[in-house]
């Protein structure tokens, strides 16, 4: 065999890798230094502006500023130009260790009160200051590059301006946040910009509006999506799919209220550990509010499922018990943190809680993992990794004993190792009541999203004093497994819209078939075929717009309809359809029974037509 040695084959372009800050010490130094250079440029151009914090992000950096006048796009260009000047001066970036008193004296001299608050939050010493030459400094732990000349001026860009409250609290002053990005090479920056443009095309907020799936309305309130008929069809399809999979595995559907007495969440620990993320208490008596005896919107479903379990005495013969609910929960996200469907205030979890004996724990845990993998396979999500989220032993936000935590974490490790599945550990990422195995999906643009999760919990059974009668007649504590393969329907749909760029697989598409009559003469025939398809569960619709065929086709393509069927004289006479798909193009004329059979088979197997 002769292999071509053409320049094209020898020098095939390799994809440009865009490292996250957490993955690379060198890129962390670049981005951290770039943020300081930006802050120095701002204070040079706009004297009197106060700086607050300026951390790196996974793909860049930002700084928060207190300035009376708002920054403009024109200002960003001026700041970028000033940054280039600072970079070209190759100012040394030096670290200085100072005493707390010395740091305080310097801050008071330049009259920057935000820095005093930051200094007060630094509990560990030494206190370090980083200088850019002898012209600018800030409190910082580092790391940084050696000189500003180590930054490539053509690999840095300023991206946007946003509002941000000091310390994220709406009661504090509102600051202005400037976002930027920095890379090792100009080529990386250009690839980053290309992916950002692609992300804009795929943005689920844009596509969701174009495809008519959901609506946000200020009169209703931010973070509260409303679902159109098409969007509701998509939700229902996902729900029915998961319900069928759960029924095969012995789950029982339950329904619980949207509100409950606050005492329920005090017992579970949510009120003490999650209060800031919950909506305020409701009551018609002020004294009830003061005594914390009112009602709250539920942030989680688990305490309700616990009460269902506790409603009667259970035997070991009854276990495992698997309750499942598509339960809507409510969390008071800050308005600045809301983002389309991926961060909302009211969302529906595909929640389930399993009550098992200790001996059943490993098998049930692995069964849940198998369910999550089945979900991912059906949704064509193949690029994911598993993360064991454990507690931070130095934090006081977790409930329960060390022994219970060790037992739960080891149970997950043992289950994963018995299955031969790889995972990585993330200390500090556990829920406050137990460790969890999270499935992190990486999309077409290499962005990470947490989807499925499964958690082991010894603490809530203890707090609610759950029991079952063991084989020897003794009373024993069950173990709880919390699981959600989707995570939330809203978040999942937002991610799927962007992953598929709105072009859903046939089984998920809200409208699966569009029937296109070449003229009004053939509309009755198209409506008859529509009725035949609807009768067997195919989501079909005849185009009644009276547009020319070419415009009908363009409209169907714009609506990302998977299958288009042209109806004219020839088709009506032969009881056939001229079929074309978005995936394969024109398939030619097929008899109507054959089209319906092929569509039905594709839907049953969740494959393409």
Q: Describe it for me?
A:
The protein has 609 residues and is an alpha+beta fold. The protein has 20 helices and 27 strands. The strands form 7 sheets. The protein has an 8-stranded mixed β-sheet, sandwiched between helices. Strands 1, 2, 3, 7 and 8 form a 5-stranded antiparallel β-sheet that branches. A 5-stranded mixed β-sheet has the order 24-23-25-26-27, sandwiched between helices. Strand 20 (468-469) and strand 21 form a beta hairpin. Helix 7 (204-210) packs across helix 16 (489-500).
Work out the number of β strands: 27
Helix content: 25-40%
- Rounded to the nearest angstrom, the radius of gyration is 29 Å
Secondary structural class: alpha+beta
Portion in strands: 15-25%
What is the mean pLDDT? 89
The general outline is: globular
Which secondary structure elements does this structure contain, and how are they paired or packed?
Elements: H1 7-10, H2 25-45, E1 50-51, E2 56-57, E3 60-66, H3 73-88, E4 93-98, H4 100-110, H5 113-121, E5 127-132, E6 136-139, E7 156-165, E8 174-182, H6 186-202, H7 204-210, E9 214-215, E10 226-227, H8 229-248, E11 252-253, E12 259-261, H9 262-268, H10 270-274, H11 286-290, E13 295-297, H12 302-310, E14 321-330, E15 346-356, H13 361-378, E16 384-390, H14 402-419, E17 424-427, E18 436-442, E19 448-457, H15 459-463, E20 468-469, E21 475-476, E22 479-484, H16 489-500, E23 513-517, H17 523-535, E24 540-542, H18 549-558, E25 563-567, H19 569-574, E26 576-581, E27 585-591, H20 592-605
Parallel strand pairs: 11-14, 16-17, 23-24, 23-25
Antiparallel strand pairs: 1-3, 2-3, 3-8, 4-5, 5-6, 7-8, 9-10, 12-13, 14-15, 15-22, 16-18, 18-19, 19-22, 20-21, 25-26, 26-27
Helix pairs in contact: 2-3, 4-5, 7-16, 13-14
């Amino acid at each position: 065999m002769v292999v071509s040695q053409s320049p094209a084959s020898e020098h095939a372009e390799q994809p440009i890798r865009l490292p996250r800050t957490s993955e690379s010490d060198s890129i962390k130094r670049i981005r951290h230094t770039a943020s300081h250079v930006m802050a120095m440029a701002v204070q040079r151009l706009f004297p009197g502006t106060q700086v607050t914090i300026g951390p790196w992000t996974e793909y860049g950096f930002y700084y928060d500023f207190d300035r009376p006048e708002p920054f403009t796009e024109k200002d960003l260009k001026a700041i970028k130009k000033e940054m280039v000047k600072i970079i070209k001066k190759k100012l040394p970036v030096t670290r200085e260790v100072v005493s707390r008193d010395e740091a305080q004296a310097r801050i008071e001299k330049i009259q920057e009160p935000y820095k005093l608050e930051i200094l007060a939050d630094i509990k560990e010493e030494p206190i370090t200051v980083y200088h850019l030459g002898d012209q600018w400094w800030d409190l910082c732990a580092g790391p940084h590059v050696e000189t500003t000349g180590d930054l490539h001026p053509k690999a840095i860009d300023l991206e946007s301006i946003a509002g941000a409250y000091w310390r994220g609290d709406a009661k504090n002053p509102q600051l202005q946040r400037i976002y930027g990005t920095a890379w090792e090479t100009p080529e990386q920056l250009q690839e980053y910009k290309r992916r950002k443009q692609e992300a804009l095309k795929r943005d689920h907020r844009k596509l969701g509006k174009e495809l008519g799936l959901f609506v946000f309305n200020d009169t209703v309130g931010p973070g509260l999506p409303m679902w159109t008929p098409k969007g509701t069809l998509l939700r229902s399809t996902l729900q029915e799919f998961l319900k069928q999979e759960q029924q095969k595995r012995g789950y029982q559907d339950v329904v619980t209220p949207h509100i409950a007495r606050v005492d329920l969440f005090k017992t579970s620990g949510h009120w003490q550990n999650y209060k800031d993320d919950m909506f305020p208490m409701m009551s018609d008596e002020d004294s009830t509010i003061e005594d914390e005896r009112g009602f709250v919107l539920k942030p989680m479903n688990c305490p309700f499922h616990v009460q269902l379990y506790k409603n009667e005495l259970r035997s070991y013969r009854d276990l495992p018990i698997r309750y499942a609910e598509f339960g809507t929960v409510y969390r008071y996200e800050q308005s600045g943190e809301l983002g389309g469907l991926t961060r909302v205030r009211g969302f529906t979890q595909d929640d389930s809680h399993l009550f098992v004996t200790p001996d059943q724990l490993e098998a049930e845990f692995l069964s849940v993992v198998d369910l999550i993998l089945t979900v991912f396979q059906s949704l064509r999500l193949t690029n994911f990794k598993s993360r064991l989220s454990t507690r931070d032993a130095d934090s006081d936000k977790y409930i329960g004993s060390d022994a219970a935590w060790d037992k739960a974490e080891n149970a997950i490790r043992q289950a994963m190792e018995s299955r031969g599945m790889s995972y990585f550990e993330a200390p500090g990422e556990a829920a406050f009541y137990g460790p969890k195995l999270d499935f992190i999906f990486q999309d077409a643009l290499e962005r990470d999203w947490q989807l499925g999760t499964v958690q082991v919990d010894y603490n809530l059974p203890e707090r609610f004093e759950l029991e079952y009668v063991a084989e020897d007649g003794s009373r024993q504590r069950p173990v709880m497994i919390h699981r959600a393969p989707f995570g939330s329907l809203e978040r999942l749909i937002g991610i799927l819209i962007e992953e598929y760029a709105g072009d859903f697989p046939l089984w998920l598409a809200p409208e699966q078939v569009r029937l296109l009559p070449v003229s009004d003469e053939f509309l009755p025939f198209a409506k008859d075929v529509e009725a035949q398809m609807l009768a067997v569960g195919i989501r079909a619709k005849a185009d009644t717009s009276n547009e020319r065929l070419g415009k009908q086709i363009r409209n169907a393509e714009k609506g990302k309809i998977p299958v288009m069927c042209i109806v004219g004289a020839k088709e009506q006479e032969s009881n056939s359809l001229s079929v074309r798909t978005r995936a394969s193009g024109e398939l030619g004329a097929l008899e109507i029974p054959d089209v319906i059979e092929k569509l039905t088979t594709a839907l049953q197997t969740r494959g393409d037509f």
